[in-house]
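User: Quick sanity check before I run a bigger batch. Here is a single chain. Can you write out its predicted 3D structure?
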Amino acid sequence: MEKKRIKKSRYITGFDGIRSLAVIGVIFYHLIPTSMQGGYLGVPVFFVISGYLITDLLRQEWQQNGKIQIKDFYIRRIKRLYPAMLVLLILSSAYITLFQRNLLNNLRGIVTSSLLYVNNWWQINHGMSYFDRFGGESPFTHLWSLALEGQHYLVWPIIFVLLMKFVKRKNKIFAIISIGALLSAIWMGILYSPDVDPTRVYYGTDTRIFSVWIGSAMAFIWPSMQLKSQIPAQAKRVLNASGMLSLLVLIVSFIYLSAQQTFVYYGGMYLISIVSAVLVAVTAHPGASLNRLMTNRLFTYIGKRSYGIYLYQFPVMIFYEAKVKNIADHSWMHVLIELFLILFMSELSYQLVEKPMRYFNFRKLRIKVKEWLALPLKNARKITGIVCALVTVIALVGITTAPSNQVDAAQEKFQKDIAKNKEAAEQTKNQQDKVELGENAEEIMATYGVTKEQLQTAYNTEITAFGDSVMLGATIDLKQVFPQAVVDADVGRQLYQAAEMLKSLREQGLLKDKVILALGTNGTATEAQFDGIMQTIGERQVYLVNVHVPTQRWQNEVNDLFNRMAEKYDNITLIDWYSESVNHEEWFREDSVHPDENGLTAYVSLIAKAVLN
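Assistant: Done. Predicted structure follows.
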């Protein structure tokens, strides 16, 4: 039997309950984002638990032995975390190689950066976005957080030893680490810009380490082995109230605190980490009641498998949703299927990889290999080993042959079309001279299905078209019918970003009396956020174009929101692009979202008729 490393230690069962809540939040943030807007906050909860546990164990080892076996620390962390991630990378790479080769692009860089625990910086340097819910998602997006933790594990035992040797006093150490955490949170606020995708500050080790350090700092003033089970009744009431309040704040934040709110980056995530630390502290205290509350069979089951659940969430979602083209229909059915697949894969990971590898003696690896080679060919272990070797070879072939930053012919054409329309959109913001009907008027009328009188009206109509990549792709077509149009559209634009951008257009005098609003391709928004858009637009006439995004679960939510808003505001005219296009798959590019040439004609024709009638 393996000798216990720390003679006196306790397993805090309630931590599995906290892990369960954290991983449920993260999973539902991706599966039902409108119902769990703040589920991403499960990650800082994980960070706080990790920081506290690791530092608490290091303190116990230091008190027992007067030193830290840093090499042994690294080995324990590797055995705990590396095998499951390695298996995930192999399985996912093999699947991509065989069944989803469009994801081969940059696979080598993704796998290498993940194995070296620098994936968060790799994604930042390659312009990846955690918040782009359309077109750019990867089965490995979530590995950024494991990279951050890996970087922390690399340097923390060294920092710990230096602090214990040269600072010594636990209160001073607590203050030093707390100041470091606060500086990291301040740095997040400094680097954050409301008008820019927040992925840099969301992924950066320098801007996110504060959650881990808050947990680490707490371990110096709240050591688990020095907390007394017998405490005064008043103290117990204060602890229980604090724990319940922190739990309630976290649950409410998981449901309502959207990652698009500037508060999150201007101290909100720091405060959530503090709240998480309170929850961890009360759960760790044997004199409080919260540990019993957070301990039950379900939480224990989920908590012990939370690492595997976190690992397999993105691969399952990305691979599954790529094969289901109508994910927006029967959304809850697909959510349940994906949940089952995630739990199934995490159970396999826990039973076949995580548990065995945690106690595996790698010094006996050569003996184990020899024993395996000696097995008969029909032996189940032999067959399993051969299958695993074959899968690994397939994965390695995919990884080694994967292209870097490759763009196929369809993508290249789309990028060129977008670039042309982007240039045309920028030109619309300059002063437009009025034009008369030209020789091509008959062709325009025939193409877009408008009468001569309507086209003449369109030539004299000043409108602002504001939208995402679908509107951007329609710029040149739209200008054929509305030469006076001001077009402001961009790839990846979200509904929640619109109010501030429209305010800027208004201040520049570019927000005309008629506004075409074409957003929602990249995700939904709340009614309050849409109200903000309408407050900025004011009394202007709004033509609201709904969405055709069958490959994404938010399609129906966006369209339902738009229907409600069209009923709520008298100055909104709803343009039903979804109903117009739903039975015309031939109008779209391979992504089933962006219209091709024929689709753009139908799109602009629909808008023109709505504006001109």
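Strands lie at 463-467, 486-489, 514-518, 541-545, 572-575.

User: Great, the batch can go ahead then.
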